[in-house]
Amino acid sequence: MKRLSVDTIISKIKNQEIFHAVAEDYSFTLKIDNYVHYVCGAVHDGHQFRKELWENCLHTEYERWYEEDPCTKQMVQSHPIVIAGCDSRFEYDLNRDPENAVFDTAWGKELWKTPLSEQEKSKSLAKHSAFYEVVHALIETLEKIHGHCIVYDMHSYNWQRWDREVPTWNLGTSNIDNDRFGNFVESWRKNLASIELPHAIKQTAKINDTFQGNGFFLKYITNTFENTLVLATEIAKIYCEEYQQIIFPEVVDVVEVRLKTLIPNHALTFQRTFKN
Fold first, then answer.
1. What are the two backbone dihedrals, phi and then psi, of residue 2, each rounded to the nearest 5 degrees?
2. Range of the domain at 122
């Protein structure tokens, strides 16, 4: 993996070069092993938090981890195209629009002892903007090559704080063209429901049960590119002990192994349908 500027990353994408890169400021990673018709994204995988913000932050390291999506990059790391955030959403949230990406409060609690300066906000928003410049170049190139593209937008959520039974997997579809892509949403839901997890973890997959797919990553791609489907895919944090900050690697491994087969098979059906 090489440390590259955003301009260099975009140039390599447009030239359809194979490469693994981390952004020059270490804010995101991108690997491209092959210019296939699907992308895996993990925008909330990151946990880095700029040191100059540490003393001013009212949330603990654990509180930040609790609201992030640990291991979501690992679950899809074997696929040909993977883009993932490295920074914590508490610095700036890649899944929110630029106007709301830097929080003043987070999950009901003030985030900063003193409000951030405009200079501090600008540093974070520049990274947000650079990420979307790369996303734009990537999807534009894939649509140019294949005509259509599908993005598996990986997230996780804290299931233990709900006061009702919630699914192992949730698909958020309120902002996609369900008339056009509904069959692929349902087939993806069935694929996720078929995954058998260790420790007799109950396996369910539902649509718009806990989250509706209102993230900016999905909205940006959907509103910008006519022929790309984004599947906002949330796994409940059954792969960790969310109140003790303990990861269960054997569960993460099973998810990764199963997605290694399910994602390319699902994406291939998508491509064949629209190619014809």
1. -110, 150
2. 2-275
The packing angle between helices 216-224 and 118-146, to 10°, is 50
C-alpha pair distances (Å), 271 with each of 37, 104, 146, 147: 7, 42, 8, 9
Q: What distance in Å separates the CA atoms of residue 135 and residue 82, rounded to the nearest whole number?
A: 11
Query: pTM value?
Result: 0.97
Q: Length of the chain, please?
A: 276
pLDDT tens-digit map of 157-199: 999 999 999 999 999 999 999 999 999 999 999 999 999 999 8
Secondary structure of the chain in HEC code, one letter for each residue: CEEECHHHHHHHHHCCCCEEEEECCCCEEEEECCCCCEEEEECCCCCECCHHHCCCECCCHHHHHHHCCCCHHHHHCCCCEEEEECECCCCCCCCCCHHHCCCCEECCEECECCCCCHHHHHHHHHHHHHHHHHHHHHHHHHHHHHCCEEEEEEEEECHHHCCCCCCCEEEECCCCCHHHHHHHHHHHHHHHHCCCCHHHCCCCEEECCCCCCCCHHHHHHHHHCCCEEEEEEEEECCCEECCCCEECHHHHHHHHHHHHHHHHHHHHHHHHHHHC
pLDDT of residue 276: 63
Residue 155 near residue 44, CB atoms below 8 Å: yes
CATH number at residue 145: 3.40.630.40
**pLDDT tens string 27-54:** 999 999 999 999 999 999 999 999 999 9
DSSP-assigned beta bridge partners for residue 22: 3, 29
Q: Which pLDDT belongs to residue 274?
A: 87
CA 203 to chain centre: 21
The tally of domains found in the chain comes to 1
